[in-house]
Amino acid sequence: MRILRFVARRLLQLIPVLLGVVVLTFLLVRVLPGDPIRTILGPNATAADEAAARARFGLDRPLWRQFTDYLGGLVTGDFGTSIQSGQSVGSEMALRIGPTMELVVLAVAIAVVIATVAGLWSARHANRAGDHGIRVLALIGNSMPEFWLGLVLILVGYAGLGWFPAPSGRVDPDTDLTPITGADALDALLTGNMPALTSALWHLALPVLTLVIAIVAPLLRSVRASALEVLRSEPYAAAEAHGLPGRLLRRGYLVRAALVRLPSLAALVFGFAIGSTVLIEYVYSWQGFGQWALRGLLYRDYPVVQASVLVIALCYVVVFLIADVVHAMLDPRVRI
């Protein structure tokens, strides 16, 4: 019951946070240089064309009226109309957010597993050759730009070895996949389409690998540092001196205590991964949320930018809420 009350209280606290994000984004996006109407219409547009376009998208109204219209639309689930495409922002976003969430969730989950296993092993073999090798590899992976790393993996995995499909989409077009959530692997699993599932996983392999390499280093360093603290602590030394079995020491003392910091850091890494997908989606022609948001920013598409920032902020606060709950479950000293 305490957890349910904590979650309900945090969800209520989200309202002023998201309202602040809405207000700041609405104001800041209009301070950016450039005019979306002139960008869309081009240099040959007449004054009448420009006036008609502004009236169509409501940009001829006072700023306060634009904000109240936007806020009223959010209450009903209407994110507005894209200036660039003339389509509903909500429908466009629904098609884009699934592929990006699939990519980010898979990458973060795999990175957490790798960081946990490698970090614990590295701490138990501290200052040995294997420990140094893992730390060097993590440092190298963290230092490589995602854009360059993606190109290298395409060059090796697709052009050189031919193990992976071309970076031209998310699934083969001949698999007859029925879209449900927009996440192709999940849709294939839900519809029982095994050829589409196989194709989607192969298309996911290189983008996920690129993102995993980019985000695993901070997670691994955190797990290793926490595990070293536990191994050098007096309670662990006392338990070991009393002759407790190694398996019980690892499960009862080392693993749980070493993972206490991981949920909060994983939440931060999740937010970083959403930002990193912009370049990864561009390299792999992923056509996801990041690429859509970047195009909206380049064209000064106010509704697209506002919706994308709001969704990213919502992802942040929800992920940190989950991290706090998991942290409380791992650490009995935390009271929620």
Features:
single chain, 336 residues, mainly alpha, globular
Textual characterization of the structure:
It is built from 14 helices and no strands. It is mainly alpha-helical and 336 residues long. The longest helix is centred in the middle third of the chain and has 38 residues, at 194-231. It is globular and about 85 Å long. 31% of the residues are buried. The mean pLDDT is 79.
The helix tally amounts to 14
Class computed from helices, strands and strand pairing: mainly alpha
Strand content of the residues, in percent? Answer: under 5%
Helix content: over 70%
Major pleated sheet: none
Write the SSE topology.
Elements: H1 2-31, H2 36-41, H3 47-56, H4 63-75, H5 89-124, H6 129-143, H7 146-160, H8 184-191, H9 194-231, H10 234-241, H11 246-258, H12 262-284, H13 289-298, H14 302-330
In short:
The protein is an all-alpha fold. Helices cover 76% and strands 0% of the residues.
